[in-house]
Amino acid sequence: MIKLHNVSKSFSQFQAVCSVSLSIHKGEIHGIIGASGAGKSTLLRLMNLLESPDSGKVEINGQTLTSLPGKDLRQARKSIGMIFQHFNLVANKTVFENVMVSLKLANYPKNKRKGRVMECLQFVGLESFKDKYPAQLSGGQKQRVAIARALANSPQVLLCDEPTSSLDPNTTAEILSVLKDINRLGVTIVIVSHEMDVIKSICNRVTVMADGEVYDTVSIEPTGIGSAKNTPANFVEQLTKIGGTGHA
Ligand SMILES: Nc1ncnc2c1ncn2[C@@H]1O[C@H](COP(=O)(O)OP(=O)(O)OP(=O)(O)O)[C@@H](O)[C@H]1O
């Protein structure tokens, strides 16, 4: 589904991602974990070319994103949604308008836009909040709007950058449950998180990063939302000890 081949990215002299090769399987929920500064967010942003790699190749669904001209890249990006830790909503637009932006940018058929926005808001349980502004919403509600916006163009992949790191445990569980529902629709999910319990509760496979490199990728049995309670101090070490189904 997503294939990275020897992908590298530097900022000035600093190499944030060093020759990473990784395959994300269709339909899985794939976690990326590692210490602060390990390169997790950069790696995620390389998957949709929000960061362009210095070298290497990024493939999605057999399409090599790194060799597509601008117009084709914009088209290919419609199949990749993304959500962020701080939601990135437009403050002076309503919930409805925030989701609409995504359809306008993708040139979605005009006569179907309103219906599609409402469908997406319904999916995340926020149709009655459509005329509110982001400042009138809780963190969890803001993330739901961001999810609705990311889903508007029916992506095949959803990239999630620390989607629950600003949320309390109950709201985290609610958002993870929405992500699980999205995955059941067939959407492949990649989730960057430093929260071990988040990774353990929903991911099928996990990639551990350290110093810009992939330390390991392991399969795990998701424990279920809300059931994993530990947040170990040394999560990289802990993760490699998870008694899952072994190397992937
Ligand atoms: N746009 C940028 N300009 C300069 N340096 C950057 C940029 N983006 C990331 N970096 C650096 O690259 C390294 C990896 O950053 P990245 O955000 O990918 O790590 P991370 O594992 O997601 O960390 P965290 O968990 O703290 O968010 C860091 O040292 C960071 O300072």
Instruction: Give the overall form.
Output: globular
Sheet with most strands: 7 strands, mixed
Instruction: Classify the secondary structure makeup into a structural class.
Output: alpha/beta
The Rg value, from CA coordinates, equals 18 Å
Distance between the termini: 15 Å
- CATH architecture of one domain, by name, is 3-Layer(aba) Sandwich
Spell the H/E element sequence.
Answer: EEEHEEHEHHHEHEHEEHE
Q: What ligand molecules are bound, each kind once?
A: adenosine-5'-triphosphate
Mean pLDDT: 90
- The CATH class of one domain is identified as Alpha Beta
- How many strand segments? 11
Q: Which segments are poorly predicted (pLDDT under 50) over 5 or more consecutive residues?
A: 228-233, 242-246
In CATH, the homologous superfamily of one domain goes by the name: P-loop containing nucleotide triphosphate hydrolases
Instruction: Determine the number of helices (DSSP H or I, runs of at least 4 residues).
Output: 8
Strand order of the largest sheet: 6-7-8-3-9-10-11
Helix content: 25-40%
Beta-strand residue percentage: 25-35%
CATH topology of one domain: Rossmann fold
Q: Topology of this protein?
A:
Elements: E1 2-11, E2 14-24, E3 29-34, H1 40-47, E4 55-60, E5 63-64, H2 70-77, E6 80-83, H3 95-105, H4 113-123, H5 139-151, E7 157-161, H6 169-184, E8 188-192, H7 196-202, E9 205-210, E10 213-219, H8 235-239, E11 246-247
Parallel strand pairs: 3-8, 3-9, 6-7, 7-8
Antiparallel strand pairs: 1-2, 1-4, 4-5, 9-10, 10-11
The structure holds adenosine-5'-triphosphate (ATP).
Residues 11, 16, 34, 36-42, 194 line the site of adenosine-5'-triphosphate (ATP).
